[in-house]
């Protein structure tokens, strides 16, 4: 049996009086790519932010690498080997590309040269722009930087929140190819996407989140073939 | 011409002090988006602590390099500690509260520090001993520079260059800039934001402490409520330079000092403060984000 790298049990999260996540269970095995699909406002970002420690849960538990991280603070979770590239990229606009990447390696004593070279290899645009301020990059380049920055810490688990949002089809391809290469290098990936088809093609398994609850789960193949999913997320008519 | 050069020296001297204090405001604002209104009172506290450290350890009249180093390092350490305590007690519990609560807490903390000074050292003006620095002065064809002025200009420059290099060239400095841009994203890098905030308060308070000691040594008369005046001027300097911007605070401080000195030299001391605010308003009309404040506006 493969090892469960991340396990979320009966997770509850609320914003004040509003319950956003109402009992979510999910797991990610070591080496897998798992995707979470769901409409706007379903609670995908909330789930990810709670897993990485930015939000406190109201109930339930989160285990990462056999350790209970339910109430561990975000910066400690990064040091344990989880890296989260947030929705909206959130690159440090007035820092250079290179400085952004160095911040990605903040938890390491010294940044890893090989990792940096590898990032420049799979996302060559970043190397060309390394002296440029991140705020002056195009949207696609910022997304590349957000992903590159997230793997500078040499994570076991990489969490990506809508990496293709707002990008042109050519760039979406570049991003998905990079994610595939990262996964093939042995990094486990948890991916939230609006682009359901591309995400399911890349992933081993998927979950569908609706109004704070998991409504469907299964192998990517099953989900791709499911009529309900096809209608709601793949834009196919009956 | 003599007046001009003399006021240039005087202006740069007081401007350096404003700059040191302004750095404390701007660094805290940069990371926490909070005006630390108690900062000026920490500066005042430093002058009193320095007075006590000096007279208790060395006794008035002793002037030696060791005395100078001990007074500065010891006082800066105490004030840095008080700054960290201030953040823990007055600001951290309100980190997620509405902005106004933190402002009220900052004003309250300032009053607490002021009253503590008054209770410990009394309500009357104290005179800082004149012997810590030698009373040497140099006369360059009519322009006089005292040993104290040379020390203020020299040490402030060294500290500001060191701070600039620390912020721009080191890993911790880069992490401070990253935290100032986006706290959540910084956390996702593994940066301990609480630790960054502590470092900011240590540095800002220590720089303010150096300024407070210099104020005591330079002006001699120190009062429990003087933090308000120096704090306000330094705050104006930080706004002029672009609040949140470190080189901006340095520039704003020096500019304000020079401007004040020129008004004092050519018009009158009474008008200095009025003109300070006219200058502030003019700058804000033409550059609402302050002189170097563009980067701050860009990131918001
Ligand atoms: N800071 C907040 N305060 C209050 N409610 C919030 C906050 N953030 C999110 N919510 C609410 O929580 C619910 C889930 O939001 P979330 O951002 O997790 O959705 P999402 O699935 O990521 O959506 P999207 O696809 O648009 O990114 C929504 O109803 C949203 O309005
Ligand atoms: Mg979202």
Helix-strand pattern of chain A, N to C? EEEHEEHEHHHHEHEHEEHH
Low-confidence region ranges of chain B: 295-300
- End-to-end Cα distance of chain B, whole Å, is 45 Å
CATH architecture annotation of chain A: 3-Layer(aba) Sandwich
Run of helices and strands of chain B: HHHHEEEHHHHEHHHH
Gap from first CA to last CA of chain A: 38 Å
DSSP strand (E) fraction of chain B?
under 5%
| Structure classification of chain A | alpha/beta
Q: What is the name of the CATH topology of chain A?
A: Rossmann fold
Q: What is the β-strand count of chain B? A: 4
Q: List the quaternary state of the chains.
A: heterodimer
Shape by Cα distribution of chain B: globular
Architecture overview:
The complex is a heterodimer of chains A (238) and B (300). With 238 residues, chain A is α/β, with parallel strands linked by helices. Chain A has a single domain, classed as Rossmann fold (3-Layer(aba) Sandwich), CATH 3.40.50.300. Chain A is built from 10 helices and 10 strands. Chain A has helices at 44-51, 74-80, 97-104, 113-122, 124-128, 139-151, 169-184, 196-202, 220-225, 227-233; strands at residues 4-15, 18-29, 33-37, 59-64, 67-68, 82-85, 157-161, 188-192, 205-210, 213-219. Chain A is globular, with a radius of gyration of 17 Å. Chain B contains 12 helices and 4 strands; from the N terminus they run ααααβββααααβαααα. Chain B has a single domain (2-286), classed as ABC transporter involved in vitamin B12 uptake, BtuC. The longest helix of chain B has 31 residues, at 2-32. In chain B, 75% of the residues lie in helices and 4% in strands. In chain B, β2 (137-140) and β3 form a beta hairpin. The structure holds adenosine-5'-triphosphate and magnesium ion (MG).
